[in-house]
Design brief:
Elements: H1 3-28, H2 35-41, H3 56-80, H4 87-108, H5 110-118, H6 125-149, H7 155-169, H8 172-175, H9 183-197, H10 204-211
Helix pairs in contact: 1-3, 1-5, 3-4, 3-6, 4-6, 4-9, 6-7, 7-9, 9-10
Length: about 210
């Protein structure tokens, strides 16, 4: 049994713990889930949890920080492929890609989306600050695209539109489209684009017609 194999197994068990914990926290709330129940969900004893995380609080922090980092990394990847020289047309396409990315995240990780909104106050102050810092940077990157799309829109309006749009996209676990390409996902993507920029989003009209 090699050290690499053991490390891989530990990483898999850690990931399974995070996934199961997100599901339990989403279903019942962070405070209502015991360490014994967390361990049982992945076939280990409650105390064995501490081999992977120092506490239940640390497990919640890891879930939420990881989610915020994945969102931010995905956003940066999209912006790295952006074409600023195309001005408004390029910004419109980039904005739609950001919307689809966030929608896919919410569809793939609905439990994380649920606890992200509900359990942020349960984090220790330093973890809460880190999640909020990552979230602010994520919003700022979207804001830059929206500012390029409509330079006449003032800062306050962009912020209101962005926060309202994230609320819409984060409602996806309750709307439950199977993927961004399903009819409900297409509708949500179009609604999100219009709430940010107005008009018809790139490609949505054609997709909505084919999905009907």
């Amino acid at each position: 049994m090699t050290a690499t194999w053991r490390a891989t197994q530990k990483a898999h068990r850690r990931a399974a713990l995070m996934e199961s914990a997100a599901r339990l926290f989403a279903e019942r709330g962070f405070a209502a889930v015991s360490t014994a129940e967390l361990g049982e969900a992945v076939g280990m004893s409650g105390p064995a949890l501490y081999k992977h995380f120092p506490s239940k609080d640390a497990l919640l922090a890891e879930i939420l920080v990881d989610a915020s980092e994945r969102l931010l990394d995905g956003c940066r990847t999209i912006l790295a492929e952006d074409s600023p020289e195309e001005a408004r047309g390029g910004a419109a396409d980039t904005l739609m890609r950001l919307i689809r990315f966030h929608l896919e995240f919410a569809t793939t990780d609905p439990d994380v989306i649920r606890i992200q909104d509900r359990e942020l106050p349960s984090l220790a102050p330093e973890d809460n600050q880190e999640v909020r810092r990552l979230q602010r940077e994520y919003v700022q990157l979207w804001d830059g695209v929206l500012a390029r799309l409509d330079p006449t829109m003032h800062d306050g309006e962009r912020q209101v539109r962005l926060l309202g749009t994230f609320g819409l996209l984060n409602s996806t676990p309750h709307s439950a489209p199977d993927s961004p390409g399903d009819p409900a996902g297409v509708i949500l993507a179009g609604m999100a684009y219009r709430s940010l920029a107005g008009g018809t989003s790139p490609g949505v009209a054609a997709e909505a017609g084919s999905a009907a």
